[in-house]
Amino acid sequence: MRRHGNRNLGLIALFLAPALLLFAAFFLYPLGFTLVTSLMRWKGGGGMSPNGLANYAKLLGDSSFRLAMRNNAIWALASGFVQVPLAALVAMILARGPRGWRLLRTIYFLPNVISTVALAMVWVTLYNPQYGAFKALLGLVGLPARHWLGDPSTALAAVILQTVVYIGYYMIILLAAALSIPRELYEAAQIDGASTLVQELRITLPMLRGSLATCVTLAMAYGMRHFESTFLMTGGGPAYSTSTMGIALYLKMDALRYGEASAAGMILILLGTVLVAALRRALGRGDPLAEAAQ
Amino acid sequence: MRKDAMRETMTTGRAAARLAMWAFLGFFLLVSLLPLAWLLVNSLKTNLELEAAPFALPARPSLANYATALATADLPRLFANSVLVAACAVALNLAVASLASFALARESFRGREALHTALTAGVLVPLIAFMVPYFTLMTRAGLYDKLAALVLVYAAINIPVSVFLVSSFMRTVPKELEEAAIIDGCGFAGRFWKVVLPLSRSGLVTAGTFCFIYAWNEFLMAMLLTSSLSARTIQLGIRFFTSQFVTDYTGMFAAIVLSIAPTVLAYAFLHDKIVAGLTAGAVKG
Amino acid sequence: MRTTARSRVLALALLALLALPSLAAAQGKEIVLKWPCIWVGKDSKAPAIAEIVEAFNAANAGKVRVEIEPQPDYNAYEQKVRTALMAGQAPGDIFTLKLNASTKDFYSNKLLMDFSKDLTGAWRASFDAGALAQSTIDKKLKTLPFETAVLPIWYNSAALKAAGVSSVPSTMAEFWPAMDKIKASGIAPMSQMSGDTNAWTSMIWFSHFAVSFGGPDIWAKPFTDKAFVESAKLMKRIFEGYTTPDAVGAGAGVSGGHFLAGRTALFSNGPWYAGRADLRATPFFPSIVIARAPAPGPTKNFMISRLQANVAAGETKDKARRAAIVQFLRFLTSEENVRKLAQSSGAMFAIDSGYVPIDPLQKQFYDIAAASKVTANDLEAALGAEATLEFAQQLGALALGKVTAEEFCALVEKKIDR
User: Fold this and answer.
1) How many other C-beta atoms can be found within 10 angstroms of the C-beta atom of residue A22?
2) How many A×B Cβ pairs under 8 Å?
3) Which residues from A are below 8 Å from C196, CB to CB?
4) Residues C51 and C122 in one domain
5) Which of B264, C54, C278, C345 holds its CA 20 to 30 A away from the CA of A177?
6) How far apart are the first and last CA of chain B?
7) How does strand C94-97 pair with strand C288-291?
8) Do B171 and A27 touch (CB under 8 A)?
9) Is residue C185 part of a domain?
10) Could you count the other beta carbons within 10 Å of the beta carbon of residue A270?
11) What is the ipTM of this complex?
12) If residue C95 lies in a helix (H) or strand (E), which one and from where to where?
């Protein structure tokens, strides 16, 4: 009905204007700036000179940056397909209202409130092979400690685990969605003799589809720009094994290679946008308007 | 006989499932509580005790770090600034994002998909790359070293996430409700204000919570865009314990504990109250 | 007609509004100098800096006032200074920089004031000549050398004695047996690390070795030089047998923590570490000996040092303002104030204040600096951030046997910007 020649166009524009204005100032202008400077030789002097695609060539020719790109892909996959499913499982359990679910919901969200600096410090000490808690835990079952963060073969998994177990953000999105599913659906299923598992698979999961798409998109986008906790825990090492594009960007700025930093930023944004667009296409079926447009 | 055995396997099966469920929940309980417990315990220790045995309890628990934290960093003032900044940023962000989300989620127009994707892509922008443009923007606007700069930046940075969340909640509002409202004489704004917005409250609360936590924990932009004490936030206060060469970790932990207390309380009481109110009676089981 | 008249009035009013503040300024108003300053909060120099600024403001009441804007977190402060400069603005009237091979690019920035014509006579003479030479690039002196540091090795001699090592080893022939004895006593001999962006404490060790092998000018040579390869081999041996199991990937906090907790006997860091309260609370504090690393090569009796903080100022065309900045910097770098700073913090300065520390640990730093015939920069100061980052990242690979010493050096060489 409102598909072609929407007569509310003026009002739509009015509603969108404030967001677009802020978006233009805080995203588009900086993006344009990053694009321009990514094509420049720009060091501490303040002056720039055109540099063509040399910054991009230098980055893509550097094996440490290629490793960072690969790591971001792993981050995105782990966030979207490990962290979010875990969050969904927790949300589905809590939505059934087991004893103390409200308290659990609050506690699960707590780590998201604590500063990243503190969380990183805790985990670095947990992982420490000399005095760490994991060493003690493994010792109980007779296993030796490893230097998880110092071994390139385990470091990436270790920093990802530190983030993936904190499911709070996605849990509250999914829990809010799960709690808004009409109760009658479950009552009807119960009368039909459907088990809890069947109810979850047949009712909850399909109803959560849209929210799951939201969470997977958000999580994968965050995986693409991941920076802080890894930087605090390993600085991207050892031997770049935990580096990400965000870390490479920061370190380029730290070395006053602003042109190269901008190029790293552009590559990150470009790859991320392709991913988000692809996810919207693949997961957009939960969106009735997008469905109508197809 | 057979029936009994079946019942038995069913009950043991159910018991095993319950056990698995509680083990699963217990695991997350442990990893969630551990950092906080660790911070709390270590904030009662000295730095040397922390270095020597990071998982041990203090020999003599002491509140000295809390006294230092309150004395060193002018925390109460920074605290008030943070509350102001976070509250204003959330208000501005939700106002702007809910308007845009309504247009994006409930109307169809040309370029809508592209616009939605572009806004969403804002989520993945690495903000460190934008330090120079943000600095230029704020100094040109005459907002450098003013709390307003932080309000604006935090509200703007969170637009992509908020639009993404709020619009996904708005999409779930049944079309029939809107159509009924139109029959009752509701216009464009009326549909937004009277129908869609009230029904997406849990989305707004979620987005608002995220924005608040972001504004409360953000450090880099706060450091970059402010300079004097009158315009600084709590995160800068916490960093007063890290000087160039020496970090007073246990003092910093005390400051962190003090700084997260209000967000935890706000989340536990405010968020839960609101969400519980919205979803009252929705619990299955 | 009417509209032009109105717009003219408006324009006039606007002009008046714009002119007002500058008029007021011209009428001998107080000059306010902003100093975004890192020496605040828990920093050991904070109390003395506050005192100095207060004294200056009192003496110049009504004319010049310096306002400290407290900047917590050093890394974020560096980012802020850089961002402001890159955005075309001085971060303050007075600020500080770490001058090294990366940051010297700032000398081509027009926002920094050039002190070369101001620093003359007795004022110039009070500065260390080597530090001034290092801070002068293309005849411009856009930063004044201020805080300096020597980077020696710290020995916990109580732990050495407990292991049966009676004196600090000065040759490699003494060094390895001593390390073996410490190892046999049940602790890891040395704190080493490959983490953070510069592998700080291990970078210091490497710098000692490289300068010993190749002399103080070694940093000008290609990193594939034998001196670097040999140093890398020594680092590999240390990492493989003589440090803690967490050394690969460890940050400076972990490295220092091991020394503080008595889990290692050797450590490396600058004089600021001496002021830590937790260090002073350790039982072995009185037994700490500050010395050189054992010299594996022909160069001996040298010390590794660096410019730790240079003072910079925002360029201004306003003559009165410029004079006020210079006046304050003269005051800040006066012998009396430097002595005050040195005394309260244990830090070292590029200005000779004649100060001799009373504190025994601090005194050891001053003594070793005075006793060293030659000084040379550390790797980070000499080669800049990119090469240092590669050094840190590949040091981990070297320690784990993923690259050889030769490959390690070739990788770092690639990142050196000459």
Assistant:
1) 22
2) 270
3) 235
4) yes
5) B264
6) 31
7) unpaired
8) no
9) yes
10) 12
11) 0.86
12) strand C94-97
Give domain status of residue C220, yes or no. yes
Superfamily of domain covering A29-287: MetI-like (1.10.3720.10)
Tens of pLDDT, residue by residue over C188-241, are 999 999 988 899 999 999 999 999 999 999 999 999 999 999 999 999 999 999
List the one residue out of C112, C111, C169 whose CA is nearest residue C135: C112
Average pLDDT of chain B to the nearest whole number: 84
**Residue C67 has what DSSP assignment?**
E
Q: What's the CATH number where C119 sits?
A: 3.40.190.10
Kind of pairing between the strands at C302-313 and C374-376:
parallel
Segments of chain A scoring below 50 in pLDDT: 1-3, 286-294
Decide if B277 contacts B115 (C-beta within 8 A). no
Domain's final residue, options C340, C360, C380: C360
Handedness of CA C273, C275, C281, C283 (dihedral sign): positive
What's the mean pLDDT in B103-125?
A: 87
**Measured between CB atoms, which of C82, C392, C394 is closest to A256?**
C82
3-state secondary structure A250-284: HHHHHCCCHHHHHHHHHHHHHHHHHHHHHHHHHHH
pLDDT of residue B260: 83
Answer whether C249 sits within 8 Å of A155, measured CB to CB.
yes
Alpha-carbon torsion B276, B277, B278, B283, what sign?
positive
Judged by CB atoms closer than 8 Å, whether chains meet at C79 and B242 is answered as no
Q: Do C86 and A151 touch (CB under 8 A)?
A: no
Q: Using one digit for the tens of pLDDT, what is the confidence trace for C336-352? A: 999 999 988 888 999 98
Amino acid C78 reads E
The 3-state DSSP composition of chain B as helix, strand, coil percent (nearest 5) reads 80, 0, 20
Same domain, C257 and C376: yes
| Number of domains composing chain C | 2
Distances (CA, A) of A38 to A254, B217, C212: 16, 30, 41
Chain B residues lying within 8 Å of A218, measured CB to CB: 123, 161, 164
C199 and C328, same structural domain? no
> What ranges in B218-247 are assigned the alpha helix state H?
220-225, 234-238
Closest-CA distance, C311 to chain A, in angstroms, reads: 17
Tokens of C60: 């110049």
Across the interface, whether the CB atoms of B241 and C42 are under 8 A apart is answered yes
Q: Encode pLDDT of B117-148 as tens digits.
A: 888 888 888 888 898 999 999 999 999 999 99
| Residue A47 burial (CB count, 10 A) | 12
Q: Which range of residues forms the domain containing residue C133?
A: 30-150+306-360
d(CA A256, CA A259): 9
Q: State the helix-helix crossing angle for A209-224 and A84-95, rounded to 10 degrees.
A: 140
Rg (CA), chain B: 24
Under the banding of pLDDT at 50, 70 and 90, the label for residue B283 is: very low
**Residue A1 has what pLDDT?**
44
- For the four alpha carbons of B89, B95, B98 and B100, in that order, the dihedral sign comes to negative
Question: Does residue C123 lie in a domain region?
Answer: yes
C357 at the B interface (CB within 8 A)?
no
Query: Smallest CA–CA separation between B136 and chain A, in Å?
Result: 10
